[in-house]
Amino acid sequence: MYEKRMKPDTVFDETYWSSRYNTGRTGWDTGSITPPLRNYFDQMGAADARRILIPGAGRAYEAEYLHELGFSQVHVADLAPEALAALQQRVPGFPAAHLLLQDFFALPAQPPYDLLVEQTFFCALDPTLRSAYAQQCANLLRPGGKLVGLLFETDFGPSSEPPFGGTREEYRAYFEPYFDFVHFDTAYNSLKPRQGKELFMCLRRKA
Ligand SMILES: C[S@@+](CC[C@H](N)C(=O)[O-])C[C@H]1O[C@@H](n2cnc3c(N)ncnc32)[C@H](O)[C@@H]1O
């Protein structure tokens, strides 16, 4: 069966994440946008997503890609200044005001976003926060707005540090109260090391 999660004895706060960047323990970092999100963004129209948020964005290759496609209201939120600085350095034209050095759970709900993008943020959270993650995503989106991205459906083994895995049945229960499921299935175009291990989700916030 799936991993027996050890109870995290660490608080995954700004100090924890900064130290992961500063010590190069960033195994999640793919160095560029991943194919499932690139394909999704490529078919997106300007009207689909005026205000976009990428929480737990890290070095934020998705933000860079969207910025280059011409989306001008892309916001990234992260606890680690090192992560946001990396985006700023790579993409000097990215609006500084859209770099939010803030806790996702404390982000204001107004004005609402049209699209939230998920990429290895959910799996980085203490699993006890999963329900709160789903609720905060719903708070931040307008009715009809979308939560799109990838969730690991795999067993990372017992660990007291991220990433934390899980199953689609578990995840469904967190999102069902707030979202309609447009798509929630194994991604067909994952990066090789992630093939068969991640779900592509497209959820629409209920009215
Ligand atoms: C595993 S990394 C993923 C980064 C990026 N999404 C990627 O795929 O490369 C998780 C990121 O979430 C950030 N993070 C963790 N908890 C957070 C929180 N409560 N609010 C905002 N960012 C957070 C960390 O600083 C880290 O950059």
Automatic annotation (TrEMBL):
<dbReference type="InterPro" id="IPR008854">
    <property type="entry name" value="TPMT"/>
</dbReference>
<dbReference type="InterPro" id="IPR029063">
    <property type="entry name" value="SAM-dependent_MTases_sf"/>
</dbReference>
<dbReference type="Pfam" id="PF05724">
    <property type="entry name" value="TPMT"/>
</dbReference>
<keyword id="KW-0489">Methyltransferase</keyword>
<dbReference type="GO" id="GO:0032259">
    <property type="term" value="P:methylation"/>
</dbReference>
<keyword id="KW-0949">S-adenosyl-L-methionine</keyword>
<keyword id="KW-0808">Transferase</keyword>
<dbReference type="GO" id="GO:0008757">
    <property type="term" value="F:S-adenosylmethionine-dependent methyltransferase activity"/>
</dbReference>
<protein>
    <submittedName>
        <fullName>Thiopurine S-methyltransferase (TPMT)</fullName>
    </submittedName>
</protein>
<keyword id="KW-0597">Phosphoprotein</keyword>
